[in-house]
Design brief:
By secondary structure, the protein is mainly beta. It has a four-stranded mixed sheet with strand order 15-13-14-16. A three-stranded antiparallel sheet has the order 2-3-4, with no helix packed on it. Strands 6-7-22 form a three-stranded antiparallel sheet. A hairpin with a 4-residue loop joins strand 19 and strand 20. The longest helix is centred in the middle third of the chain and has 10 residues. It starts with a strand and ends with a strand.
Length: 385
């Protein structure tokens, strides 16, 4: 008996019940005739589906969950826990319109998601101010607009337009003339004592004195998506939230096939990072290389990105960073563009944990680090499923 294995995109098969008992197979325009008694089984392989030898393309989900937000896919962030990503980076205009907040109040300004996943504001973030009538998308950590100073008096910079210059504090508290070391020569030098000889990043997000020092639990309102209604994201407070550092790491390193499901890329001419959903199935006409060391290997036009986006892929643009009112899109060496995305997790003392990527032709990496909370980083919210 024969076992037939067929790899084909166009196959037609008929079984004759006549005396001849023949199997007729038309494969890519050619006919194959076999006696039915000679065939034990027939197995068809889809060339676009994954095989055990091709883990780069994980098995597709035949019944995708219809509850995804705005067509964005399903991502595991812990065992048995999934989210969908917002369709663009978070943006804010301090002047236009108003928005509802989780405490039932209304505040001036409008929150929204970027129109396209590759959109970012860039150097216009240098205009950040309470009266700036333009969009910003690089925020200090925990700057949702939630005023909790009555319970957390150190959290004084909570507005989305807060900038780092407000938190810098290097204060000379004493000076003395020291002559003891110079008794022979009679020379003296001034000695200075400082409260803090470095930047003191006081006031962003919940302090370490709070029960929950991250953007969750009793401090959840410090989270942009929990506290605010997003105008094009359901327009209700509490629908979205920020991933914790553990959830970011689970997506990138722990979930099934994680190593194959993310890479630097360029979409519509914008450098950034693509993360694919759990049950990604690669479109037939799209190429994909995992975890490249550059932005150029995975390069997609808007039409090609539409195909990837329809599978649930997300794209994080390399939107740069803001320090005070200076925006830097490239790294300090000028060699590569970078993207920094806040997590909800507290870091050491006055730092918070963020995810960043900064590849180029010589090196490539994505990593988690602790950053000063007054720095302006991008925010991409998620929705629990």
């Amino acid at each position: 008996m024969k076992k037939i294995f067929i790899l084909a995109t166009m196959v037609a098969l008929t079984l004759s019940i006549s005396a001849q008992k023949q199997m007729h197979i038309w494969m890519d325009g050619s006919a194959l005739k076999l006696s039915i008694n000679e065939v034990d089984s027939v197995t068809f392989f889809d060339p676009n589906a994954s095989t055990p030898d091709d883990p780069n393309i994980p098995e597709p989900d035949p019944t995708p969950d219809p509850s995804t937000a705005n067509g964005i896919g399903i991502f595991s962030v812990a065992e048995g826990k999934t989210v969908s990503f917002a369709p663009g980076n978070l943006q804010f205009n301090a002047v236009q319109g108003s928005h509802l907040r989780a405490d039932g109040t209304t505040a001036k300004g409008t929150w929204r998601f970027a129109e396209n996943q590759w959109d970012y504001v860039g150097e216009a973030n240098e205009n950040i101010a309470e009266d700036y009538d333009g969009w910003i998308d690089l925020f200090g950590w925990g700057t949702s607009g939630y005023d909790n100073t009555a319970n957390d008096p150190n959290a004084i910079f909570y507005q989305p337009w807060s900038s780092s210059s407000q938190s810098l504090s290097t204060i000379k508290i004493d000076s003395t003339l020291n002559c003891d070391m110079y008794e022979i020569t009679g020379e003296c030098v001034w000695e200075y004592t400082y409260m803090n000889a470095a930047y003191y990043d006081k006031g962003y997000g919940p302090s370490s004195d709070m029960q929950d020092a991250g953007l969750y639990g009793t401090s959840a309102n410090y989270d942009w998506g929990v506290y605010n209604a997003i105008s094009n994201g359901g327009n209700q407070a509490g629908l979205w939230r920020t991933l914790t550092s553990a959830e970011w790491e689970y997506i990138l390193n722990t979930r099934k096939n994680a190593e194959y499901l993310h890479s630097p890329a360029t979409v519509n001419g914008v450098c950034g990072y693509i993360i694919l959903p759990d049950n990604f199935k690669k479109p037939a006409d799209i190429t994909w290389t995992k975890q490249t060391n550059d932005f150029s290997t995975n390069t997609y036009t808007t039409d090609q990105w539409s195909l990837l986006e329809s599978t649930g892929a997300i794209f994080l643009p390399a939107a740069g960073v803001r320090s005070d009112k200076v925006v830097q899109i490239k790294d300090f060496s000028g060699a590569s563009k970078w993207g920094n995305y806040w997590s909800a997790s507290k870091g050491y003392e006055t730092e918070a944990i963020y995810y960043y990527f900064m590849p180029n032709m010589k090196r490539g990496y994505d990593y988690f680090n602790e950053g000063n909370t007054h720095w302006g980083y991008s925010v991409r919210l998620v929705k629990d499923l």
